[in-house]
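Lecture 7 notes: from sequence to structure.

We start with a single chain of 212 residues. Read the sequence below before looking at the structure.
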Amino acid sequence: MTSAPGYFSDAKPVLLELVDPAGMRVLDAGCGAGGNGALMKGAGAAEVVGIELHPAAAQRARSVCDRVLEGDLAALDLETLGPGSFDLVLAIDVLEHLVAPGELIQRLVGLLKPGGLLVACIPNVAHVWVFANLLAQTWPQKGSGIFDRTHVRFFARRDMVALLEGAGLEITAVRPYFTRYRSLELLSLVASLYVFRNFWARQFLLVGRKPA
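Now the structure, written as C-alpha cells:
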C-alpha cells in the first residue's frame, strides 16, 4: 500500500464543473478519505455513499459521507446498494487499480437510474513524460501519479471512451485534466501549443449517461 502524502485525501473541485449533484444520491466508488464526497455534500447532494478498501481512509470518509462500505470493489456485492437507485456514480482514480475495470463499470452502471451519470477520472498513459521515460528505456515506480506502482491497467483517451461505451454509457463529456492549479494548467497549455494538449493531460475526466 502506498504511503504518498495525501494519497487518499485528493479531491477534484473540477467535478462540480461537470455535474451538479444537488438533490442527487451519489455513490463514490473508491472514495479514499472522502474528499470528493465532501465536495458533493457541499454542493447539495442528498446522500453520498462511499466504498473504500483502505481501512484508515474509510474511517476518515465516514466523517463526511452518509455511509461508507469497507472492502474490495471487485469483490463486494454491489447489488445490496440497490440496483437503479443512484443518480450519480463517481469512479475517480480507481479503475486503473483493477484487474477487470470493464466488469466493475458494468456493475456500477447497474446501480444507476435510467438517465443517471457516471464520472470517471483515469490517468493518461499517452503523456509526454511517459514518452520521455520510454525513450530513456525506463518505467519509474512511484508512490502516486501516472507511474503509481499500484496501477495494473493503462489507458489512453480512446481506450477510456471505449471502456465506458462498452458498458452501455453515452459519453457526454471528455475533459483533459492537468492540475487543480490554474496557473500550472495554463503553463501546460502553452507548453503543448494547445494543439497537443491531450499529450500534456495527466488524466481525463469522462462523463457517461445511462440511457433512459
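Residues 15-123+148-180+203-209 form a domain with the Rossmann fold fold (CATH 3.40.50.150). Keep this in mind for problem set 3.
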